[in-house]
Automatic annotation (TrEMBL):
InterPro entries: c550_proteobact (IPR030991), Cyt_c-like_dom (IPR009056), Cyt_c-like_dom_sf (IPR036909). The keyword Ion transport does not apply. GO terms for molecular function: electron transfer activity; heme binding; metal ion binding. This is Cytochrome c-550 PedF. Keywords: Heme, Iron, Metal-binding, Signal. Residues 58-140 form the Cytochrome c domain. Residues 1-26 form the signal peptide.
């Protein structure tokens, strides 16, 4: 499934993202924006539980832009939530915060048959996710 998602994404980015966009419409009207992570070290296919890019300046830069394109509409510009979704500046820093982050990023959040947050794992991939997390940690507040 993960590979199929990635192949679809690759195919779809070539033709204006149509199939990805329409498959996502079903999960809350989010059109994912492709993110160029080629400048970041490869981290393989298996999902990691802890951020391999923590403190990586290139990842922070990519993550800021990826956040703005994919997360800000719900979580707020510059990670300051306007109240629609949790304020991500308060996510715990370090490894245990990483585990919670990657769980939500991969699978999103649904309950009582409603999608509160769409899953991003298969669509944007883990390099993008960890880049976003690296940027978020620079915005952390207690
Ligand atoms: C459609 C709106 C929406 C989008 C887009 C969205 N989220 Fe969320 N997110 C939510 C909501 C709502 C919750 C709370 C879910 C719940 O409590 O069940 C949430 C929860 C989270 C959490 C857990 C926060 C906590 O304090 O428990 C993380 C981490 C997170 N989102 C990261 C992201 C990232 C990263 C992106 C972009 C790749 C993103 N979200 C995009 C709506 C969204």
């Amino acid at each position: 499934m993960r590979n199929i998602g990635r192949m679809l994404l690759l195919a779809a980015t070539g033709v204006a993202g149509l199939s990805v966009a329409s498959s996502l419409m079903a999960h809350g009207n989010v059109t994912p924006q492709a993110v160029d992570t080629s400048a970041l070290p490869d981290i393989g296919e298996e999902w990691l539980q802890h951020n391999p890019y923590r403190g990586n300046a290139e990842a922070v830069k990519i993550g800021e832009s990826a956040y703005g394109q994919n997360c800000a509409r719900c979580h707020g510009l510059d990670a300051e939530s306007g109240g629609i979704a949790p304020d991500l500046r308060y996510l715990e820093v370090g490894d245990s915060g990483d585990e919670w982050f990657v769980q939500r990023y991969q699978h999103g959040s649904s309950h009582d048959g409603k999608v509160y947050m769409p899953p991003f794992g298969d669509i944007l991939g883990q390099k993008t996710g960890w880049a976003i997390r690296a940027w978020l940690e620079t915005k952390h507040q207690e």
